[in-house]
Amino acid sequence: MNMQRILIAEDHTILRQGLRALLDATDHFKVVGDVSTGKEAIRAVSELNPTLVIIDLSMPGMNGTEAIREIRLRHPEIRIIALTVHKAEEYVRTALKAGADGYVLKDDSHADLVSAVRNVSNGRTYLSPGICTGVVSGYVGTTARPSSSASWEILTHREREVMKLIAEGYKNKQIANYLSLSTKTIEKHRANLMKKLNLHNAAGITAYAIENGLRAG
Fold it and tell me: Which long-range contacts (CB under 8 A, 24 or more apart) does 173-177 make?
């Protein structure tokens, strides 16, 4: 695993310092900075060039969700993990749609946080064990909203296949091998479905897939 350069954005000093100590003590993790507001996080991303940002959703001034959206807009390559006390589905959906690649609860264990960083760094979406079951059970088997159904209908059969595999954590090359297609073809299907559904990253695709019952866990 390559060295992960991590930026922490958390307004509680003790928690921020604790996170820094825990992550710096983990192999292949290096905390390059820590800040206490959303605006500072946006500025620090440009100055410190982290590969991953861990950001609290509830901070004074610009909240974490707004900062995630702005960071994603300016630096689409950076991986982002939302850190929060909120377990409600609407918070999870909002964070993912803003551009977060992972969602970790503050009462999760150190092992959970390390797992989140490693999964997200490897291009996968991570949802805290504390909310994953509730979120999935809240979506799977339910009737999709009319707008979601309408959007879903505009996808081709192949685009739906690609979406499901993306939501399950597979990368373009793996999907190409699985479907016996070229990587460029998968990239085209991925770009098309994201444009049709107004999605911006793999986390958004995963959130949509969960909402429409396309992913079991």
Answer: none
Contact 62, 94 (CB under 8 A): no
**Residue whose C-alpha is closest to residue 83's, from 95, 66, 98, 71:** 95
Tally of domains in the chain: 2
pLDDT tens-digit series, residues 6-47? 999 999 999 999 999 999 999 999 999 999 999 999 999 999
The CATH number given to whatever domain includes residue 206 is: 1.10.10.10
Residues 88 and 26 in one domain: yes
216: in domain: no
Closest by CA to 51, choosing from 73, 21, 81, is 81
CA 183 to chain CA centroid, nearest Å: 23
Rg, Å, the chain Cα set = 17
In a domain, 126, yes or no: yes
What percentage of the chain exceeds 90 in pLDDT?
Answer: 52
What domain range includes position 132? 4-137
Query: Which ranges of the chain does DSSP label H, i.e. alpha helix?
Result: 13-24, 38-48, 64-74, 89-98, 110-121, 129-139, 146-153, 157-167, 172-179, 183-197, 202-211
d(CA 156, CA 151): 11
Q: pTM above 0.70?
A: no
Domain end, chosen from 106, 137, 168, is at: 137
**For position 60, what pLDDT does the model report?**
79
> Which residue is listed with tokens 């396309």?
214
